[in-house]
Amino acid sequence: MPPKAAISRVALADQVMRVLQERILDRVYEPGARLNIDALSRELEVSSSPIREALTRLAADGLVAASSFAGFSVAPVPPRDWFEQLLAYRVLAEGWAARQVARRRPAAAIGRMRESLEAMEGGRLGRKARDYLTANQADQAFHEAMLDGAGNEILARSVRDLHPHLHHARLFAKVPQDIAPTIIEHQAILAAIETGDEDGAAAALERHLRASWRRYDGWTADEPA
């Protein structure tokens, strides 16, 4: 059994990471802002160890930049064309996964996808990180269940690694987000998978991703459709 002190440190680092993540996503700390460990330690009234651990984990998630000379800072928001490349990649990768799951119809993955839809109904998307947390976690769980069901761990991991940047796209959009369209789109994906419709599953997945991009595209939100 591990020492209680070790468990306490891990739990504290989790809490610190959650606070810092919310502040970064809500732009309390602007992109490029330096994150001084000593200052954060005083502000949050914790030792430097959980601060350093939290920042290191956020760096692994892509929300924080780490330098051996400059220390930690908030990572810059990727440019618009990066998000467009992200969309194209997800259409290819997750479209393939949707086809595989429709072909294989693994019960465990489909069950997880159903559960995520139920969880999404209890959440909402908003302008603050904590506002959309429940819905976002369920949204992510839906896609991860589908990716896991496709049976390609390398592909699943590569898509998971991109999730912090999806937070950026959602939170920096110019308009609040409504979870209802996402639920409807997920229902269409799942319905095609459950009936073994490979083409329909891939098409529904692509429609969902492109619709999500239009909803989250803060750079063109004021332009006519």
TrEMBL record:
Pfam families: FCD, GntR. Residues 10-77 form the HTH gntR-type domain. SMART domains: FCD, HTH_GNTR. Gene3D superfamilies: GntR ligand-binding domain-like, Winged helix-like DNA-binding domain superfamily/Winged helix DNA-binding domain. GO terms for molecular function: DNA binding; DNA-binding transcription factor activity. It comes from the Bacteria. Signal peptide: none annotated. Keywords: DNA-binding, Transcription, Transcription regulation. SUPFAM superfamilies: GntR ligand-binding domain-like (SSF48008), Winged helix' DNA-binding domain (SSF46785). This is HTH gntR-type domain-containing protein.
